[in-house]
Design goal:
The protein is built from four helices and seven strands, in the order βαβββαβαβαβ. It is of the alpha+beta class and 141 residues long. The strands form two sheets. Strands 5-6-1-4-7 form a five-stranded mixed β-sheet, sandwiched between helices. The chain has a two-stranded antiparallel sheet with strand order 2-3. A hairpin with a 5-residue loop joins strand 2 and strand 3. The longest helix is centred in the N-terminal third of the chain and has 19 residues. The protein is globular, with a radius of gyration of 16 Å. The termini are far apart.
Length: 141
């Protein structure tokens, strides 16, 4: 039904609240960039006519990865393949947004810890990139 696949890969080594914050930031920016039509957003309505707006018809799969370097590799593969992406890193936390932007600009690649990545592109390519990853589960498993 859908030609493209939407996947998030979250770093399992970070604390759950930080992981959810990273996922929220990535999705907010990614959704704004891609737009409602591309992400197949629609409104759901209940029997009383109450509207639940902007829910994607597409499946959105949340996967986990234990290694920041492997998330960085996914980023490079996505860039090479022309896959749309959004990432969140350790430099994007603490302080003001100005502090975060400056910290990111000053960070050498080896200093960056990837908290997560969102990938969106042709189903076959995204599946191949993520096929060895597991579904996100509670950090205590």
């Amino acid at each position: 039904m859908f030609q493209n696949k939407l996947v998030a890969v979250v770093n399992k080594q970070i604390e759950m609240g930080v992981a959810m914050n990273a996922l929220a930031h990535m999705c907010l920016g990614f959704g704004a960039h891609m737009g409602a039509e591309e992400l197949h957003l629609m409104d759901y309505e209940n029997a009383d006519g109450f509207i639940y707006p902007n829910i994607s018809k597409m499946p959105f799969i949340i996967l986990r990865e234990k290694n920041s370097n492997k998330i960085a590799n996914l980023l490079m593969k996505a860039k090479e393949a022309g896959i749309q992406y959004s990432v969140f890193t350790n430099t994007m936390t603490e302080g003001t947004w100005e502090d975060q932007k400056a910290r990111t600009l000053a960070a050498k690649p080896e200093e960056i810890i990837f908290y997560g990545i969102v990938l969106y592109g042709p189903k076959e390519i995204v599946t191949e990139m993520t096929k060895k990853l597991s579904l996100w589960r509670d950090n205590h498993e």
